[in-house]
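Hey, resending since the last one bounced:
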Amino acid sequence: MSGVFSIAHKSRAGHLLQQLSRQLFELRHAIKKAPITLFAVFISLSGCAQDYSLGPPADSEQMTITVKVPEELEAETLQVMYRSSTCKRITVGGSGQRVEQDGRHGIDVQLQRQGQSDVYQTKLPMDGGGACKWHLANVMFGVTYKDPTRFGENVIGGAGGGVVVIFDHNNSPRRGADIKVDGDLTIKKDYYPWIKERFLGGYTKRVGLAGDGDIYLMYQALQARSVYFEPILHSDFVVYTAGPKVKKEGNYTSVTYPDGSFQVDGRWGPNFRKLEAIRQAAEAKQ
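The structure tokens again:
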């Protein structure tokens, strides 16, 4: 009997270990997929008595975010970050040392259409309140193609047309600001449809927006209470890029401009100044 008991005991122990292992896997998976707001709840339930939730006071100053959206595009979800110097975020440095950073709380906000206009807007409390004394740190938003398949059946949405505005002295999740402004911020920028084909690593065809700068325009506006973004889309001036089909030294991305000119010079994307010159020359002939 003792041998039978030993086998049964081992079998039950193995079954329990399998169950525990599966539960731990599911917990890790759930934590990875949980939105930022759920992490605050998890931390609170795991022993910390601090309340990490936002609680904006009724009299908080408001930040107004406004986007004027061209007909072919749509406004992306506004990604908002609040920071707190009260509720610290603890990390481990490269040498194993304890590193304290300001706490971060992210939320997603949908911009609301203003009547039947092409203007989308939302207001955000500058003071996030709560026990952590949250403050509005930065926002990330932009525009993208509403229907990428208008450029072809298998075309998917691409990058470009993004904006990051930082309201404090910290970097955003993207990086720090390229441009610093005083007072309210008004952004009016030209954009061109940019169709990108990639062959290496699997074929993809995307349509994004080519503008003056990186995928995201980066601003710091410490005194701003209003941010206005108006992307000006020149939909008749499409630029195409195609990556190399074979990975080999000297094989570069090719760029075809709206006037039919062709360029292969190691550049990964279109030359914005050339795009502007082509459009302005065409408009001067009209």
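The longest helix spans residues 2-33.

Sorry for the duplicate.
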